[in-house]
Design a protein that fits this description.
The structure holds two protein chains of two kinds. Chain A contains ten helices and twelve strands. By secondary structure, chain A is of the alpha+beta class. Chain A folds into two domains: about 170 residues, no CATH class; about 220 residues, no CATH class. In chain A, a hairpin with a 3-residue loop joins strand 3 and strand 4. In chain B, helix 1 packs antiparallel against helix 2. The N and C termini of chain B lie far apart (about 170 Å). Classes of the chains: A alpha+beta, B mainly alpha. Chains A and B meet through strand 10, helix 4, helix 5, helix 6 and helix 7 of A and helix 1 of B.
């Protein structure tokens, strides 16, 4: 028994080491890959005071530079962001369909392979004014760029500049030795998180969308098989996948649905709660499988927001008279307290889904960042590939820490899926609860 | 304008939002219909079945035990009845014996009494006969005595009379 366990441990360690080394490969192309794409000189990701950078952007284009030093922040950001190409280990690039809309250009549909994504998921071509920078579609906003058809582009530069006290990302693309300003896709944060409404909308099947589809199909195959075995193996003890899933489903039913929603009404909400649980759990785990692109789907606020809003809608559309009475005109308290409580209750109405979506996205993104940071230790210790011994020490440290972190993240994947389901059930339960008092 | 930080994964993007809504709603609909509903129904049915089977077993057990206690009660009753019957028989026997004994005693007493009366009667008859015979004998003797001696001897005749009276008195 002990021997089997130690063999298993060694295998896990080896697997982790392999994963870490594979991650290293991702960022180890500095020397030989530089000629692939010209990079703008202003490759500065750090500070806020960049007033001088605006001037030298013209002279920057065409200069051949290496990728420079390893930037943990930019790397982590690149890996946890959504992308228009599904890249595995910077080697396998699965092109994804792009569906974009811009006011001046109308609808465009093309595969992301048309943009020729290469190292760091930077594209080599522009199509109808769209380019790929760090895996994401961007569109040229400056005059003079050929906005029709496919053209070759040089390289990219990313600046983080301070504008009216905000830090904004400013990317540029090189074409015919001339830099052109790029804009990212439209986001709905109103500039709070560095986004905003730009000159195009991206409705593509992105990495996250593809992950959702794949996980859904995978889960469907598993769950459908389990569901079928209840009819084919009727009257027999559960077996295989059936007995793997059964405790989970029974747990959600007995520990989440029944206590929070009640014995009478829980059945109606069981499919929803189980959908929430398996959808989130599946995507949490999908993002943690090494060599599968580490898609950060449930760490993306958009995805968690959608699920949280659906929970919000379900609970409030099913809310009974007592629920709304407790929100707007709390019974059993002095009159002057009632309006105050109403304000607090209405606030909590919206804070509930807000915390729901932030908790899940924050936890999962934090896990991804932690793992990427630990992997990044290799490059920090190795001085971006210049120090062999540092790289070795960093690798050893990194494997241990990454192994630890991935174990934690495995637990987090289950806990967060469970917590999301539990809180959804409690919000729905609070809305439909029958009150006998007052 | 407040600005927190530049953080791409937390920027809500309309494209991803639309796809997420579509995929999640489809997930909910398809999985609910084809996976979760049948599983939950099967689980609930099975649990009900198990509960029913357990209840059934419990009831059967209770029935068995009640049957057993009923049997025991019947047996007890039968035993009591037997004892009662035995006692009754014993009493009847004793009564019959006592009655018989009493009757026998009474019969014996009657026979004895009858016998006594008979004996008394016989005795009386015998005594009377003896008295008669003794009187006759005495008269004979007296006759003979008188024949010989009673010649004007009145005293002797008185004496004889006296004697005869005495005998009669006895």
């Amino acid at each position: 028994m002990a021997i089997t366990q130690s063999i298993r441990l060694v295998l896990v360690m080896a697997f982790m080491a392999l994963g870490t080394i594979a991650f290293c490969q991702d960022h180890d192309h500095h020397d030989h890959d530089g000629h692939d794409h010209g990079t703008l000189q202003s490759e500065d990701h750090s500070g806020h005071d960049h007033s001088s950078h605006g001037d030298n952007s013209h002279s920057a284009c065409g200069g051949h530079h290496g990728d420079g030093d390893y930037d943990p922040k930019a790397t982590a950001m690149h890996h946890i962001s959504d992308a228009n190409v599904y890249t595995i280990l910077d080697a396998i690039r699965i092109p994804l369909p792009c569906l974009v809309y811009s006011k001046d250009g109308g609808w465009d549909f093309f595969m992301s392979s048309k943009l020729g994504p290469g190292h760091h998921d930077d594209g080599h071509y522009a199509y109808n004014g769209y380019v790929m920078h760090l895996g994401n579609l961007k569109r040229v906003v400056e005059e003079g760029f050929p906005m029709q058809g496919k053209v070759e582009v040089g390289g990219f530069s990313t600046e983080y500049i301070s504008k009216e006290g905000k830090e904004i990302e400013q990317a540029k693309v090189c074409h015919n030795n001339k830099p052109y300003l790029l804009e990212a896709k439209t986001t709905l944060d109103g500039g709070l998180l560095g986004g905003g409404i730009t000159n195009f909308y991206d409705f593509s099947i992105t990495k996250n969308v593809l992950s959702m589809i794949l996980v859904s199909i995978l889960l469907f195959v598993i769950l459908r098989r389990a569901a079928k075995s209840y009819t084919t193996r009727q009257g027999q003890a559960p077996k295989g996948i059936q007995s793997l899933l059964e405790p989970v489903i029974v747990y959600i039913r007995d520990e989440v649905a029944k206590p929070f929603i009640g014995d009478k009404k829980y059945l109606k909400y069981m499919p929803f709660l189980l959908s929430v649980f398996f959808f989130i759990l599946g995507l949490n785990l999908w993002g943690q499988v090494p060599f599968l692109g580490s898609a950060n789907v449930t760490g993306n606020l958009t995805v968690t927001m959608v699920v949280a809003i659906i929970v919000f809608l379900i609970s409030n559309f099913n809310g009974n008279k007592h629920y709304w009475q407790h929100i707007f005109w709390m019974p059993g308290v002095p009159l002057f307290v009632k309006p105050l409580l109403a304000i607090i209750e209405i606030m909590s109405l919206f804070i509930k889904p807000l915390t729901l979506m932030l908790r899940l996205a924050g936890n999962i993104t934090a896990g991804h960042i932690a793992i990427l940071s630990f992997v990044g230790l290799i490059f920090i210790f190795g001085d971006s590939g210049r120090s062999m011994s540092g790289g070795v020490i960093g690798s050893i440290l990194s494997v241990a820490l990454t192994l630890f972190m991935m174990s934690i993240e495995l637990i987090v994947a289950f806990i967060q899926a469970y917590v999301f389901t539990l809180l959804s059930a409690s919000y729905i339960g609070a809305a439909i609860e029958e009150h006998e008092h007052h | 304008m407040i600005h927190f930080f530049l953080f791409a994964p937390f920027q809500p993007t309309p494209g991803l939002a639309i796809w997420s809504v579509i995929i999640f709603l489809l997930f909910w609909f398809i999985f609910g219909k084809l996976a979760f509903k049948p599983i939950i129904e099967a689980l609930n049915t099975r649990e009900d079945d198990i509960q029913n089977a357990l209840d059934e077993a419990k009831r059967a057990k209770e029935e068995m035990s009640s049957l057993k206690s009923e049997n025991e009660a019947l047996l007890q009753k039968a035993r009591e009845e037997r004892t009662a019957m035995l006692n009754e028989a014993k009493e009847t026997k004793n009564a019959i014996i006592a009655e018989a004994r009493d009757k026998a005693k009474a019969d014996a007493n009657k026979i004895m009494a009858d016998a006594k009366v008979e004996i008394e009667n016989q005795k009386k008859a015998a005594l009377a006969e003896v008295k008669g015979q003794v009187g006759a004998i005495a008269i004979d003797i007296a006759e003979k005595v008188l024949k010989k001696e009673l010649k004007g001897n009145t005293e002797q005749t008185d004496l004889v009379n006296k004697l005869v009276a005495e005998i009669n008195q006895n």
